[in-house]
Amino acid sequence: MDPGDYQFFAEIEEKDNVRLTLDGWEIFNRYSERKDIIEGFFANVGGGFHTLEVEYQDHGGKAQIRFWWERQ
After folding, report:
1. Do residues 31 and 17 touch, judged by C-beta distance below 8 A?
2. Domain of 67?
3. 14-72 confidence digits (pLDDT tens)
């Protein structure tokens, strides 16, 4: 990653949970009963390699996730 501030997004369907960590730091951990876009922010990310972990759970209904990030 290039150094800077990053906004992270996950679009989930109904009755889903998503958790995101960057190098072990939790950015978001959210459950939603409806289709939703979850957002989180991480400031001052250093340049280089990092570990992003996305954990996704479906609790019924359609199972689908879309994940992306934008450098600010």
Report:
1. yes
2. 4-71
3. 999 999 999 999 999 999 999 999 999 999 999 999 999 999 999 988 899 999 999 99
Cα distances from 3 to residues 7, 30, 38, 44, 72, in angstroms, run 13, 26, 23, 7, 10
pLDDT one-digit tens code per residue, 2-22: 999 999 999 999 999 999 999
Residue with tokens 């960590």: 21
The span from the CA of 72 to the CA of 70, in Å, is 6
**Contact (CB, 8 A) for 54 and 5:** no
Number of domains within the chain: 1
